[in-house]
Amino acid sequence: QVQLVESGGGLVQAGGSLRLSCAASGSIFSINAMGWYRQAPGKERELVANITIGGSTKYADSVKGRFTISRDNAGNTMYLQMNSLKPEDTGVYYCNAAVFGVWGGVVNIWGQGTQVTVSS
Questions:
Q1: What is the C-alpha end-to-end distance of the chain, expressed in Å?
Q2: Quick one: CA dihedral 93, 99, 103, 105, positive or negative?
Q3: Alpha carbon of 99 to those of 30, 49, 53, 92, 103: distances in Å?
């Protein structure tokens, strides 16, 4: 089994910062791409940023220059540093990963989500 656990969400005022973490555990051989998605009330889930095993990154236009995605050296923990937060950044943030398991297969898994609320 493989699981992702997010942490670091909370309530912050506009202009503030938060750092989200996503830790992968279980029968992991390696993790290819990892990403952060968010879902605001009444809206579809959208990509915020992703990062490949090689360190290449991609960001949604709405967060470029404000958010930074990174991974630790082992590659099993991912972070999202969020600066200059805006009320429109409010939502549930989900971690996603494409995991190569020790059993030889690949699974695409999601974390349980962490709430980020930015007050104006």
A1: 41
A2: positive
A3: 6, 17, 11, 22, 11
Asked if 109 and 25 count as a contact pair (C-beta separation under 8 A), the reply is: no
Report pLDDT digits (tens) over 61-89.
999 999 999 999 888 999 999 999 999 99
| Per-residue DSSP letter, 78 | E
Q: What is the pLDDT of residues 16-66, one digit of tens each?
A: 999 999 999 999 988 999 999 999 999 999 999 999 988 999 999 999 999
Cα 35 to Cα 10, 16, 51, 80, 89, distances in angstroms: 19, 22, 6, 9, 16
As a whole number of angstroms, the distance between CA 65 and CA 42 comes to: 26
Tokens of 26: 């279980």
Burial annotation 52-63 (CB, 10 A radius, 16+ → b, else e):
eeeeeeebeeeb
Six-digit token string for 52: 């490949």
Residue 68's DSSP bridge partners are 81
